[in-house]
Amino acid sequence: MSDVQLIEVGPRDGLQNEQTLLSVEEKIEFIARAVDAGVRRIEAVSFVNPKRVPQMAGAEEVMAGVPRVDGVSYIGLVLNRRGLDRALASAVDEVNAVVVATEAFSRRNQGCSVEDTVSAAVDVVRDARAAGLATTVTIAVAFGCPFTGEVDPRRISDIVARLTDQAAPDEIALADTIGVGVPAQVRDLAARTTDSAPGIPQRWHFHNTRNTGYANALTVLDSGAGAIDASVGGFGGCPFAPSATGNIASEDLVYALDRSEVITGVDMQGLIDTAAWLGRALDKNVPALLGRAGAFPAVRADGDI
Question: Coiled-coil intervals in this record (predicted)?
Answer without folding.
Answer: none
